[in-house]
């Protein structure tokens, strides 16, 4: 698939899809219109699959990838660069930062490279001890802390974030000469790994606004076009402005200059201290129709989950949602851990923003929060070695066995255990795979027309009831 098709689909629904030779050609503007069934279906015939003209194959990828060229990843110890990231995404084996071989169980279909525009390329030079960088005492100290690793390396990351948030970065990091050479190399690597129809490599960068001392207003900017247009202007940095409205203006100017297309994907509203979805402009002015239209135009997607916590909903805002209790929460403060004040949380999570957007749409004539949802990767970390261990998998209900099969596949990506046993609350039969629980609190045989409802009372005692599917 080419970049244009991939980006249009990503903007429309958050998932890219392709079909066969009969695929309908959908422009970005059409993607926002209600679907006309007649446009996609022929008159029904004998085969339900004949005559389909709509995408049927989901493509999996990642729109938010940092390498050792980014400040946060590089200072945290990541040494792999963009080439390694693309090789890994395409299914090749790479040697990880820790020296272990790593490979995906299934290659991705697409990936966007989004290293930070602030200080682009300088972190790699600091880590390598570049003489010019070592002439600055702060950068020399960060180099030494990175080399020590562990807690010292993490302390260097937090120092860097605080300095960037408070506009106190050493001048060398902000020198555009480093950004220019790095941008040229990065876009060249993306083009090298872009193979239409096999793997889509997308050019991008992260614009990293930590407004007011750490309020996370980060956006990943994704290019629909190739290197020729990307090189016509350097990525915008927060050295120029930390105001998202200025980023939209930059995107508009870039499109007019190049004839290309861009979109921005915000993330981690949970670290914005109430600013990601605030009901006012960045400078505190009242919301206007123009402001709402610009936000809706440039930001059709929001990344709801990422390594630094989820930003879909908060338990205090959705108290009846049982899935939110403790789920991927990082709600202590902003990126610099400045504590939250009452009322901030309600402007950090997308579920509330979707409701507020409907209200603003009625008032302004335009909805600024008409977002689709995307998700960044959240890597699994196990606090113990798998090799040679005796593993006990625990699940609630064992049915077809497919969930356990998927868990086993992932488990063996981390090593080879000595044994694996399964414990479940209820085994309801109906197996499709040769998987059996060693331990089950209850075993019942239910037809596929029935479902099992598990409940737990205040004392923690489990019970279940059988219900017929409606």
Description of the structure:
By secondary structure, the chain is α/β, with parallel strands linked by helices. The chain has three domains: 7-59, no CATH class; 61-374, no CATH class; 390-468, Rossmann fold, CATH 3.40.50.2020. The chain has helices at residues 3-13, 37-40, 71-75, 82-89, 122-127, 131-134, 137-148, 150-165, 176-193, 211-214, 227-230, 244-258, 289-298, 350-364, 402-411; strands at 16-18, 57-59, 61-65, 94-95, 101-102, 110-113, 200-207, 215-216, 219-223, 262-266, 301-303, 305-306, 309-310, 372-374, 390-398, 419-427, 439-443, 450-456, 462-468. The protein has a five-stranded mixed β-sheet with strand order 3-6-7-9-10, with helices on both faces. A three-stranded parallel β-sheet has the order 15-16-17, with no helix packed on it. β4 and β5 form a beta hairpin. α7 (137-148) runs antiparallel to α8. It is globular. Residues 8-32 have low confidence and may be disordered.
Q: Please give the radius of gyration in angstroms.
A: 25 Å
Structural class: alpha/beta
- Unreliable stretches (pLDDT < 50, length at least 5) are 8-32
How many domains in all? 3
Strand content: 15-25%
Per the principal axes of the C-alpha atoms, what is the gross shape? Answer: globular
Number of strands: 19
Largest sheet entry:
5 strands, mixed
Strand order of the largest sheet: 3-6-7-9-10
- Please give the share of residues in helix: 25-40%
Total of helices? 15
Overall pLDDT, averaged? 87
How do the strands and helices of this protein lay out in sequence?
Elements: H1 3-13, E1 16-18, H2 37-40, E2 57-59, E3 61-65, H3 71-75, H4 82-89, E4 94-95, E5 101-102, E6 110-113, H5 122-127, H6 131-134, H7 137-148, H8 150-165, H9 176-193, E7 200-207, H10 211-214, E8 215-216, E9 219-223, H11 227-230, H12 244-258, E10 262-266, H13 289-298, E11 301-303, E12 305-306, E13 309-310, H14 350-364, E14 372-374, E15 390-398, H15 402-411, E16 419-427, E17 439-443, E18 450-456, E19 462-468
Parallel strand pairs: 3-6, 6-7, 11-14, 15-16, 16-17
Antiparallel strand pairs: 1-2, 4-5, 7-9, 9-10, 12-13, 18-19
Helix pairs in contact: 4-9, 7-8
């Amino acid at each position: 698939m080419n970049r244009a098709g991939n980006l249009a689909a990503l903007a429309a629904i958050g998932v890219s899809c392709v079909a066969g030779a009969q695929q309908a050609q959908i422009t970005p503007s059409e993607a926002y219109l209600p679907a006309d069934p007649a446009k996609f279906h022929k008159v029904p015939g004998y085969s339900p699959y004949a005559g389909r003209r709509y995408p049927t194959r989901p493509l999996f990828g990642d729109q938010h990838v940092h390498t050792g060229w980014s400040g946060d990843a590089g200072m945290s110890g990541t040494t792999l660069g963009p080439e390694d990231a693309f090789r890994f995404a395409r299914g090749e084996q790479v040697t990880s930062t820790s020296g272990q071989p790593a490979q995906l169980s299934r290659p991705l279909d697409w990936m966007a490279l989004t290293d930070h525009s602030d200080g682009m390329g300088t972190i790699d030079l600091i880590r390598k001890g570049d003489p010019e960088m070592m002439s600055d005492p702060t950068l020399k100290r960060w180099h030494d802390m990175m080399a020590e690793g562990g807690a010292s390396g993490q302390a260097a990351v937090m120092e860097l974030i605080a300095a960037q948030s408070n506009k106190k970065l050493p001048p060398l990091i902000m020198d555009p000469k480093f950004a220019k050479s790095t941008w040229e190399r990065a876009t060249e690597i993306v083009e090298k790994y872009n193979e239409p129809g096999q793997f889509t490599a997308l050019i991008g960068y992260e614009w990293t606004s930590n407004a007011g001392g750490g309020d996370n207003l980060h956006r990943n900017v994704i290019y629909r076009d190739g290197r020729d247009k990307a090189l016509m202007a350097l990525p915008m940095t927060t050295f120029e402005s930390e105001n998202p409205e200025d980023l939209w203006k930059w995107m508009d100017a870039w499109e007019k200059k190049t004839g290309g297309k861009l979109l921005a994907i915000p993330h981690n509203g949970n670290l914005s201290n109430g600013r990601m979805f605030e009901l006012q402009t960045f400078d505190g002015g009242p919301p206007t129709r123009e402001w709402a239209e610009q936000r809706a135009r440039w930001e059709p997607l929001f990344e709801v989950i990422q390594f630094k916590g989820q930003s879909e909903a908060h338990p205090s805002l959705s108290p009846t949602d049982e899935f939110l209790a403790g789920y991927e929460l990082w709600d202590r403060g902003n990126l610099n851990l400045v504590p939250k004040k009452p009322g901030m949380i309600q402007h950090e999570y997308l579920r509330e923003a979707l409701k507020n957007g409907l209200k603003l749409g009625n008032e302004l004539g335009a909805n600024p929060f008409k977002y689709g949802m995307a998700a960044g990767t959240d890597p699994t970390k196990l606090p113990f070695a798998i090799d040679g261990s005796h593993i006990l998998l625990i699940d609630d209900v064992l049915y077809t066995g497919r969930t356990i099969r998927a868990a086993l596949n992932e488990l063996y990506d981390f090593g080879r255990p000595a044994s694996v046993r399964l414990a479940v609350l209820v085994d309801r039969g109906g197996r499709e795979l040769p998987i059996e629980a060693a331990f089950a609190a209850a075993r019942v045989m239910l037809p596929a027309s029935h479902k099992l409802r598990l409940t737990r009372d205040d004392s923690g005692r489990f019970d279940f009831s059988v219900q017929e599917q409606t």
